[in-house]
Amino acid sequence: MDELLQHLVDQPLGNIIVFVGLALLFVAAVGKIAGKIEPDTRGRIVSGILGLILVPSGLTVHRFQDSQGPQPPITKVTPASTSSEPKRNSPTPRRDGCKPGYVWRRAVPSDHVCVTVEVQNQVAVDNQLAPSRTKNSGPYGADTCLDGFVWRDAVPGDHICVTVETRSRAANDNNLAPTRIRP
User: Fold this and answer.
1) Separation of alpha carbons 126 and 169, rounded Å
2) In whole angstroms, what is the distance from residue 48 CA to residue 77 CA?
């Protein structure tokens, strides 16, 4: 039970607000719940109104948080994040496409860094394995990686957990990106 509560606390505020709003709408619609919750008519109306306010409010908070992007971790520095590799603010150049032999990496849908097909395939595998490589709780919340994994950082806010080698390859691909696009 403690783990469940900790997981709920680690969730973004927008998700929690939407969840509470949906629960209130459920109470308003159903009314009596197994003898534990028995609101009268007034209680059901208030639950419905609060639910109708909280669901869109939570979605707005969620959208606002997404538009700001994930905040970088502050409290802990992982060994891989102390590397001397330069960080690029916008590693997704895009013109007409990639030179022959290269394809878009697609770490996220808007990622247009040109890489080999092998790297693109590895990115897809890493994206699929992401849930199995996170603790879902810890100093970075749901983005906390298991031991031996670090954030890929292929693009700003990319918190897919990968090996240190894969992270280094992503940084190298970002640095070589301008040389791999069609003029």
Assistant:
1) 13
2) 45
Alpha carbon distance 150, 159 (integer Å): 8
d(CA 139, CA 71): 13
Token pair recorded at residue 21? 């709003």
∠135-122-114 over CA atoms, to 5°?
120
Instruction: Give the tokens for residue 36.
Output: 């534990």
- As to burial, measured by CB atoms within 10 angstroms (0-12 exposed, 13-18 middle, 19+ buried), residue 87 is exposed
Domain ranges in the chain are 8-68, 79-179
**Mean pLDDT score, 62-84:** 47
Q: How far is CA 139 from CA 9, 65, 142, in A?
A: 12, 18, 9
Helix (H, G, I), strand (E, B) or coil at 103: strand
DSSP H helices, the chain, are 2-9, 13-30, 41-68, 117-129, 164-176
Tell me the C-alpha distance between 172 and 95, whole Å. 20
Q: Is this model's pTM higher than 0.70 or not?
A: no
Q: What is the pLDDT of residues 22-44, one digit of tens each?
A: 888 888 888 777 777 788 888 88
Collapsing DSSP states into helix, strand and coil, what is residue 141?
helix
